[in-house]
Amino acid sequence: MSAQAQRPGMEKYARLFTPLDLGFTTIKNRAIMGSMHTGLEEMPDGFERMAAYFAERAAGGVGMIITGGIAPNEEGGVVVKDQDGNPVFSASKLSTQREVAGHKLVTQAVHEADPDVKICMQILHMGPLAHNDELVAPTAIKSRISKYVPHELDAAGIEKQINDHANCAKLAQEAGYDGVEIIGSAGYLLSTFLVEKTNLRTDDYGGSYENRMRFPLEVVRRCRAAVGDDFIIVFRIAAMDMLQGGMSWDEITQLAKALEQAGTTIISTHFTWHESAVPTIATMVPRAAFTSVTARLRKEVSIPVITSNRINMPQVAEDVLARGDADLVSMARPMLADSQFMNKAANDAADEINTCIACNQACLDHTFSGKTTSCLVNPRACHETLLSYLPTNDSKSIAVIGAGPAGLAYATVAAERGHKVTLFDAASEIGGQFNLAKLVPGKEEFYETLRYYGKMIEKLNIDLRLNTRVDVDMLADSGFDRIIIATGISPRTPQIEGIDDEKVVGYIDALKGNKKIGKRVAIMGAGGIGFDVADYISHDGPSAALDIDLFAKEWGVDFKNHPRGGVTGVEPQVASADREIFLMQRKETAVGKGLGKTTGWTHRLTLSRRGVKMMNGIDYLKIDARGLHILRDNKPDLLEVDTIIVCAGQEPLRTLYDAAEAKGLPVDLVGGAYEAAELDAKAAIKQASEMAAII
Ligand code: FAD
Ligand code: NAP
Ligand code: SF4
Hints:
By secondary structure, the chain is of the alpha/beta class. The chain has 3 domains: about 375 residues, TIM Barrel, CATH 3.20.20; about 140 residues, NAD(P)-binding Rossmann-like Domain (Rossmann fold), CATH 3.40.50.720; about 120 residues, 3-Layer(bba) Sandwich (FAD/NAD(P)-binding domain), CATH 3.50.50.60. The protein has 22 helices and 27 strands. The longest helix is centred in the first third of the chain and has 20 residues. The chain binds flavin-adenine dinucleotide, NADP nicotinamide-adenine-dinucleotide phosphate and iron/sulfur cluster.
């Protein structure tokens, strides 16, 4: 037994740490870092940054890494243009010899970090979802989520696409990758050949299912021929595409078997098309919700199968493997959140893992907004060369006032660097507003962030003083070298006649259950908190995020019978509280427009299915015994409600800072106390971490 094999967590998570022998090579454990586009691919120094990012994950103990998607040709990808409309340097395509050198930086860095870690490059032909003028598809059908109509491929075009995949795989091999992953799901090119509604061809590549499978199978065959036997080919299959009229179970198994024959090494199961109306990775999705589908497919093939989606802790992965649901577990976002995930698991220190809370706020929301990917709980992700927590040679005594996300991030980064930190909070527990967020059904993962920080406080010997409201006199002669004011916010109270009426309740009291909430409720303010409050009071029964069957019922998914796409003919069944709820804002924009790019639709859909009435362009006139008087479409109206919950944004809480500064104390502001507008936990943690990195 090697020294590594003796680490205690490797026994506890025995299946996760069992190597997988592929015949020609071995994956050292069962954890795969799944593919994520990071935006680094399009940057001039992208390869250097990707090298650092992936090498840190390789050193962190993962068995195999799959890169973000790289297009096999221009028509399959994103063409970045300068302001004059000329294409500019982009690493997101690999079709020429000239492009190999950059990729070598990545593969060398990974193999230097750990020669046993495998790295595969994902070949992503975006088909009708590509961003360029020459995009192609089996049929000229515009995707619901794309701006462009693709060009229909002719016979020569099909031949070119297949050859370009093979050429790309060959170049990836030259660049030092251990394999490629070909994406055949999500609404990208290969999957659009498979599904009837996106493939109306009448030639050899359309019509019968045999014909519709021809293109993806030929891609695999030619890639295999180009790279030889000793090279990993992963094929990502839509094992449940979540589309009305999508793929049937028979079609999926037929494809999987044919892919095995065509030379695929590993099948990776994917559970969506981007245009599907079922959330598959958001925080409201139960952990490991989709692995039963992988389990069924695993019985149909003799090659290894990867499962994925909402597997974010070692025990969850171990349980999936123990049930025999999969051979390998893909964790993409969890590796952004904590690059040392597998090392911590190996050391039986899972409680030190900074867990992905599936918020999508800094990863997918960034990706789909053209920003560099990062992570709400770990702002170093994809910024490894820019943000480092280096040991200090000038250790200071630092007081951090406020143990919300900003104070926690500051305290832990400063302590990790060698500063002596005392952390104060007036409350009896750490977490600040995260203690409210965690109460919202579907946000249970927020507990994990608090568990992580609690453990770090202990590990880094931070002197934690709870139940301590700090005032300026306590700071005056305290001797701290630096005082960090992270006191957060106070909720905004709109100045409206009758705002002191007893039917008016603040969101904190509403969420904590301090005040009774009636049957007819008006919520003033439809930002993130307004939506969360509406969810909280419209919700009935247990949280679907903790129950896969309930989740399936609420979103209309049939895991057991697997109708076409998993959803065809299945009606969502939503349980809701016996309340009439009005969710309002003054702005004319659509309610919920400012919510997360990739998750906002799930919140809007959930609330509208529960009958919550969303109203924009509202003027609040007054509150009296009859209810809330408003102006709607310039006409007076009365909402006869018995409760009005105020979710009207927040103001910075700076009294302590102002007093301390007036006394000339060495103070800095961070988080909500610094800026409440546009503040969320992502901004608070990032700002605090960046400040603590340089003190
Ligand atoms: P806070 O979290 O407000 O923490 C401030 C801390 O300072 C508190 O613990 C307080 O007790 C303490 N304090 C204040 N004065 C003193 C004093 N004098 N002495 C000692 N201690 C003091 N953000 C997201 O990004 N994503 C979400 O999904 C999300 N959901 C949310 C859901 C809800 C219901 C709420 C209420 C907020 C949510 N947020 C979310 C917002 C996020 O929680 C805040 O942006 C974040 O908590 C701000 O962090 P902070 O540390 O600046 O302030
Ligand atoms: P917010 O998103 O800024 O929303 C504040 C709401 O209050 C808006 O609807 C605003 O709309 C309204 N408002 C502002 N001033 C008002 C006034 N004087 N009178 C009446 N209404 C007023 O802030 P929040 O909802 O308090 O959330 C705080 C932070 O937490 C935000 O950054 C948010 O993103 C974050 N958060 C995120 C999530 C998430 O899921 N990602 C969840 C919860 C919270 P009008 O001005 O149009 O009326
Ligand atoms: Fe996970 Fe949120 Fe970080 Fe994305 S931003 S990796 S979803 S914690």
